[in-house]
């Protein structure tokens, strides 16, 4: 199957402006041809350290909506994000839609990219989910604690790990009040707080997804948290799952047991202090091991993704990894699932 093509056209001043502002989030005007239409768009570089890579990632605003174009430079398979976001809905957790595309910039082929749906108002509208507020967890200060996880110092602000997206000032205050109370309460008051403010079923399914896929960076950052308008409770959406399925976010082989089965962050710790939530989490994990987190379920999806991009990977001049490394990724992912299943099974049976 041929991959969709996305063609970006930038003027000289816009292109040089991108380079001058490598570390800013300023957009420049461009044109994009996609799905048979040429439209005016706005473009900027995206990501952290990846902005210094020879193959960079982009945000593009088209028709008032942001699209993310990830180079997936550190992932030899180029499917780990896509595979993870295909897996989460199997657990009952919404995740961004993705597809691989061929990206061109001023007629120069940039190779295979992953086009990722933005988590925003349209994301929730498409799924019929009402939201009152949305926050992005952008660094490890988003650990639901009062202190910085590395320095141990008190945070200057409980919003310091988050990028506020919408909801208004009252929602910021409500969210930080929840975090503050979470850290100060124990026992029955803490249980009541969690019952009132957290969609525990969603949270535990999200936790299971991060644990099963092995996303070491997924507990204190790389997620979105929103407040569901009807229930009034906070829910989680996964984000940035490139470092999964046996490799870390830099593409290095990761130890199979590196990610603990109970994850790590303050909210998880407080939640799992209560037996009813431990038992629910245990049930979610064991059910996942019987269904979606199996070679039989995952490998056909992974195989289809790899097959679709294989012809283009060979021609991609800007890849970090060799074509031979790419060809071995299917078996690496298969092995990860097999080994991780056993690790999680043993740990889940010990949860009481």
Key terms:
alpha+beta, single chain, 4-stranded antiparallel beta sheet, 7-stranded mixed β-barrel, 11 strands, 352 residues
- How much of the sequence lies in strands comes to 15-25%
What is the element string, with H for helices and E for strands? EHEEEEHEEHEEHHHEEHHHHH
Q: What does the main sheet amount to?
A: 7 strands, mixed, barrel
Number of helices: 11
Alpha carbon gap, first and last residue: 48 Å
Q: Assembly type of the shown chains?
A: single chain
- Described by the principal axes of the CA atoms, the overall outline is globular
As a percent range, the share of helical residues equals: 25-40%
Tell me about this structure:
It is a single chain. By secondary structure, the protein is of the alpha+beta class. The chain has a domain at 129-292. The chain has eleven helices and eleven strands. β6 and β7 (108-117) form a beta hairpin. α2 (80-87) packs antiparallel against α9 and α4 packs antiparallel against α5 (187-197). It is globular. It starts with a strand and ends with a helix. The relative contact order is 0.13. It comes from Cohnella candidum. Pfam families: CotH. Keywords: Capsid protein, Virion. InterPro entries: Spore_coat_CotH_CotH2/3/7 (IPR014867).
Give the helices and strands, then pairings.
Blueprint: E1 5-9, H1 12-20, E2 28-34, E3 37-46, E4 57-62, E5 65-70, H2 80-87, E6 98-105, E7 108-117, H3 121-126, E8 131-137, E9 162-166, H4 169-184, H5 187-197, H6 200-213, E10 223-228, E11 234-238, H7 266-271, H8 275-290, H9 295-315, H10 323-327, H11 329-350
Parallel strand pairs: 1-6
Antiparallel strand pairs: 1-2, 2-3, 3-4, 4-5, 5-7, 6-7, 8-9, 8-10, 10-11
